[in-house]
Amino acid sequence: MMAGDGRTLTHIDASGEANMVDVGDKAETVRVAVAEGFVRMAPATLDLILKGDAKKGDVIGTARLAGIMAAKQTSNLIPLCHPLMLTKVAVEISEDRALPGLRIEAMAKLTGRTGVEMEALTAVSVACLTIYDMAKAADREMEIGGVRLREKSGGRSGDYKRGDA
């Protein structure tokens, strides 16, 4: 079973048991991953958030911070992820009137032996959940969606960019 060839599961050994991949022999390279997602909501909820009138406070600022903190905790949340020394995590949140709602983008970066896709995806997921939590009093019908890896670079498997990105 070749790890990372796109046709096998790298975290399952020959007997079907879960295991943490040994990355000790991999070369250290700069690795970057970008993930995205959204929270769809009523237009009035979006206005409430953008005006800063949510009862729980600054929704966007809090969600951005929650996403950054979550990326740093990924190995504690996802069982077979390696603890990483991230050198950069950025979370951007922007309004999208067409949804209507907020779009979230997270970038994670390091120089190391394993990728940062899970950290970027975790940052987006927790930022979305934080937005939901902080605005649920105004809109319980919000929808979280579209959480996906948009692109990644570095490592043996090379660069990746979604076809629709």
Short key terms for the protein model shown above:
165 residues, alpha+beta, 4 helices
How would you characterize the overall build of this protein?
The protein has 165 residues and is an alpha+beta fold. The protein contains four helices and five strands; from the N terminus they run E-H-H-H-E-E-H-E-E. A five-stranded antiparallel beta sheet has the order 2-3-1-4-5. Strand 2 and strand 3 (101-112) form a beta hairpin. It is elongated, with a radius of gyration of 18 Å. The two termini are 31 Å apart.
Per-chain topology:
Blueprint (H helix, E strand, L loop, with lengths): L28 E12 L2 H9 L7 H14 L1 H4 L10 E9 L4 E12 L4 H19 L7 E11 L6 E2 L4
Antiparallel strand pairs: 1-3, 1-4, 2-3, 4-5
Helix pairs in contact: 2-4
- Fraction of residues in β-strands: 25-35%
Range of helix content: 25-40%
How many individual β-strands?
Answer: 5
Give the quaternary arrangement of the chains: single chain
Structural category is: alpha+beta
Radius of gyration (CA) equals 18 Å
List the strand order in the largest sheet.
2-3-1-4-5
- What are the secondary-structure elements, in order, as H or E? EHHHEEHEE
- Count up the helices: 4
Distance between the termini: 31 Å
What are the segments in which pLDDT stays under 50 over at least 5 consecutive residues? none
Q: Report mean pLDDT, rounded to a whole number.
A: 91
Characterize the overall form.
Answer: elongated
Described by strand count, sense and barrel closure, the largest sheet is:
5 strands, antiparallel
